[in-house]
Amino acid sequence: xxxxxxxxxxxxxxxxxxxxxxxxxxxxxxxxxxxxxxxxxxxxxxxxxxxxxxxxxxxxxxxxxxxxxxxxxxxxxxxxxxxxxxxxxxxxxxxxxxxxxxxxxxxxxxxxxxxxxxxxxxxxxxxxxxxxxxxxxxxxxxxxxxxxxxxxxxxxxxxxxxxxxxxxxxxxxxxxxxxxxxxxxxxxxxxxxxxxxxxxxxxxxxxxxxxxxxxxxxxxxxxxxxxxxx
Length: 230
Known about the structure:
The protein is α/β, with parallel strands linked by helices.
């Protein structure tokens, strides 16, 4: 009795295996199609692959066209305008000039870099972990690839997001000339929080802090100058 059952189970297993093999072979021979109907109206600016196996080259938007589209957007222009107003105050305080060498740390997509350039600052460098060419290059803010004392002004809005805030601040100070200026923007805070941030900059002294608006947010602007004897 047990032998009959075993033979029956073996036959069932063989049939199941054969069916599975044939099904898989059949699927491999099929060419998957896209979900675009054949009678759909043509769209010259769009190109869909004929199948998942289609390896023909795709049409990508060139970088300069992507940037042109991004830079003409309302959101981009609004943020650049806000940074322009922010930096104008530094001009008025005689901390920023057209011949200043300015460094923007964690510059994101480069709004501040564009604002400074449009204002007439001749030498502006922006870095971020992910590059956004041509405005922002790739670099680690904790280990900046620049010589000591290379810049006059260093600016950042992202110190509080740094993995190692003290090292981040130290790199900002290192790349500044003696007497150079660090400008740090953080979410609006009180005097005690300002003191904590200033303590990160061991070779600088505070020039002042104030509450301002940047990109529609209330923030605190902290300005420090590197010590001449540092």
